[in-house]
Amino acid sequence: MPAEATARPSLPKAPTGIAGFDDITLGGLPAGRPTLVCGSAGSGKTMFASTFLVNGATLYDEPGVFMSFEERAEDLVANVASLGYDLDKLVADGRIAIDHVQVDRSEIEENGEYDLEGLFLRLGWAVDSVGAKRVVLDTIETLFSSLDNEAVLRSELRRLFGWIKERGLTCVITGERGEGQFTRQGLEEYVSDCVVLLDNRVHEQITTRRLRVVKYRGSAHGTNEYPFLIDSQGISVLPVTGAALTHEVSSETVSSGVPGLDAMLGAGGFYRGSSILLTGTAGTGKTTFSSCFVDAACARGERCLFFVFEESPAQIIRNARSVGLDLARHVESGLLRFEAARPSLYGLEMHLARMHRDLDLFQPQAVVIDPISAFNGPEMEVQSVLLRMVDLLKARGITALLTSLLHQNYVSSQQDLGMSSLMDSWVRLFNEEANGEMNRTLYVIKSRGMSHSNQVREYVMSGSGIGMIEPYIGPEGVLTGSARVIQASREQAARVRRRQEAERRQRDLARRREATERQMAELRAALEAEEEEIALLHSEDAEREAALERDRDAMYRHRNAAE
């Protein structure tokens, strides 16, 4: 079948420029159609509409008109300035027109001839003055507050929305939340092509803003509730769907910042893009290990984002100096950035949205979250947020170190917040009490894809950093602290005794060898003397034999002469 026959027409869309929202709506709001943005007071309707209008004028070359039925132009300019928008300049440049329409109930009489022709004329003039492609009407309740006849109200709403479509304007209409319905009249949502519901929810005294696309004619869209954040960086929306398990993996290793710990890992460090869980009781040095990890990342020239929830950045920088780390220089170079906030400042979803936005802005290669145990709330919600957080980091190939506080009465099935099975590596820190002192130990529970040490290692923190101490195994297990020192002294004394005993035996052997050699020399001398004596006897016998022979010869000659 030809591709032309299978191609489906797509609905034209106008991107809002709001981070995350265009992903949820698969491109933005329906172009040339009205969209209803409704919600309770303080949910961010006006901010959402203003962002849609300003981004259109600045990012997509689509001028716009903001028609307000409540706020004056100067109030609107002051309010959106908190998002970094300069409406006055956009108005002066002819990119945006602002019109404040004051609706007075006493001037409106509901009768058969009541219509919105005056509004259409005024809005049409504003649209033509800047060549607008986008329009915001804020809020529609004020415009129809004087109408009680539902038939007239529905008719005028249809006329308004029809006029918007005829002009090809992408329009955002804000409305207040009604009782049991999305708007007060309960009619706007039926005639709108797209309905976006904003909610400002308070749970346990913590506020979380959420967004939901209720309907979107002619287009697929995300149907879940999504947390969104409004701050000085603007509006950002975080999709709640976790990343698919298709992220890339790397065989490259990165240092933990602690040489002794790297040596315990079979590959000499953690795999790049992996997630590491560092758990331990209070005082074991979780933040110090995190600082070493950050320092090593920055030393490699990598950008690092440090999320802290219990200490201030200045406090972490000061404490890191005690182990010889200068994190301030990395902050000054722009490689290290701290994001500090109390856990109670936002709800769980808002923290996730904030992290998502910070990752987009800073684009780090390494992230530290210290600690994840600071997040409070229902266990399932905390696990859901942390799962999506890990998915987000893995999908971006970010090496992440997450710390978690454990209590002294830790039970293996508790307090890990369901994270242990998600982590690629898990290192546990302990405070061991023995002989009236506390000593720090660690061991690697797991490190996927590498053969790691199974030893329990003692470590010390000093001005030269974190150092690992070679383990001493005693009759009752691993010895630490003074017990290790005592055991080392005992072993040293035993070695000295063995060496002294060996030296004594060597001296005894030398003495025996000397005595033996002396005896052998004496025997050899005696043998030599006896040999000399025997040789002398042989010589004397020979001389005697020779003398006898001479005597015989002389006698023989004498006898012969006598004859």
From TrEMBL:
Matches recorded under Pfam families: ATPase
UniProt keyword terms in alphabetical order: Hydrolase, Kinase, Phosphoprotein, Repeat, Transferase
Region listing for Disordered, in residue ranges: 536-563
Top-level lineage group: Bacteria
EC number(s) reported in the record: 2.7.11.1
The UniProt record lists the keyword Phosphoprotein: yes
Composition skew (Basic and acidic residues), residue ranges: 538-563
Domain (KaiC): residue spans on this chain: 12-251, 252-482
Keyword Transferase tagged: yes
InterPro entries on file: Circadian_clock_KaiC-rel, KaiC, KaiC-like_dom, KaiC_dom, KaiC_N, P-loop_NTPase
Protein name: non-specific serine/threonine protein kinase
Enzyme class, first EC level, given as a word: transferase
